[in-house]
Design a protein that fits this description.
The chain is α+β, with helices and mostly antiparallel strands. It has 12 helices and 13 strands. The strands form 4 sheets. A 5-stranded antiparallel beta sheet has the order 4-11-1-13-12. Strands 9-5-10 form a 3-stranded antiparallel beta sheet. A 3-stranded antiparallel beta sheet has the order 6-7-8, with no helix packed on it. Strand 7 and strand 8 form a beta hairpin.
Length: 297
């Protein structure tokens, strides 16, 4: 759409695919600095200045930061409530209870593949999943940074020792695939899509693929499992991508007005995040097609 000069009004930039600076260097983006100053008050009020600055090139505003992921959920577990119910089990509240529930589900499993803990050998979230503490981060797989500012070699910490012990317990109990060192991402994706799993250190998106294998499966059969006992967690403001306006747009202010409307209230933002297709403001319709926003005047 960009290469053909099609006149649309906004699109989503995924920085891990094509970066903002790459688009800007090609002359593909509209400078929305003036539009942001005139119409973007709600955006500026709700988005950290650092995130806004990251959407600039040579001092010009080329994008609006996009909230990427809810990080408060990252170290929690997705668990299959339908399997708990089938086995007559209560929701686990501790790692020990989760382990016992997993063993019971494994013993009563009737699926085609055993519901091993879904993971490949290299998984950056495993240190958090197998640890009872949520007050640290691990950078570059080795640098441990605690909430109080402590920096250490992760492999020398109690958090690492605990994670290793818990992982070993699961492996010896037959809950982790014995071929995990050679288990591929494609195999993992297939396992998740088939619903051949009980607990996951993360979440799944569209459940339609699971429903193809388990017709009576419902989205409510997946729930979050919080083993933190109400403890505070680190919650980074995750802004990775952004919304940009193509140079060919005939109404560059329209995208800014729209996202400013989205940030005007929680109600607006929730409506936007749930596939908004119609906005009466400004007498226009906005339609999302493949992450590209089109304002129809």
């Amino acid at each position: 759409m960009l290469s053909t000069g099609e006149k649309f009004d906004a699109f989503h930039v995924m920085n891990d695919q094509v970066t903002l600076t790459s688009y800007a260097s090609r002359g593909a983006l509209a400078d929305i600095t003036d539009e942001m100053a005139e119409y973007g008050q709600n955006i500026v009020a709700n988005v950290p200045e650092l995130a806004m600055n990251n959407c600039q090139v040579d001092g010009k505003q080329y994008g609006i930061p996009a909230f990427w992921v809810e990080t408060a959920l990252n170290e929690q577990a997705t668990i299959r409530k339908d399997l708990l119910d089938q086995c007559g089990l209560d929701m686990p509240t501790t790692f020990e209870e989760l382990t016992n529930a997993f063993i019971t589900v494994m013993e009563n499993w009737e699926g085609n593949q055993r519901p091993y803990f879904p993971s490949v050998a290299v998984n950056e979230r495993l240190p958090y999943f197998f640890s009872s503490s949520d007050d640290f981060c691990v950078y570059n797989s080795v640098v441990y940074v605690n909430q109080d500012g402590t920096i250490a070699n992760y492999y020398e910490t109690d958090a690492f020792k605990e994670a290793v012990q818990n992982g070993k317990t699961w492996y010896e109990a037959g809950l982790i695939n014995p071929d995990i060192l050679t288990y591929t991402q494609d195999q993992l994706t297939n396992q998740l899509n088939l619903g051949e799993w009980f607990v996951l250190n993360g979440t799944v998106g569209n459940v339609s693929s699971i429903q193809e294998n388990i017709p009576d499966f419902e989205p409510t059969d997946i729930v979050w499992l919080d083993l933190t006992d109400g403890a505070q967690q680190i919650r980074p403001y995750a802004v990775k991508n952004l919304q940009a306006v193509p140079l060919a747009s005939e109404h560059p202010e329209a995208a800014v007005k729209f996202f400013n409307w989205a940030y005007a209230s929680q109600e607006n933002y929730d409506l936007f995040m749930n596939c908004l297709l119609w906005v009466p403001q400004w007498g226009c319709r906005c339609v999302f097609v493949l992450n590209r926003l089109k304002f129809c005047w």
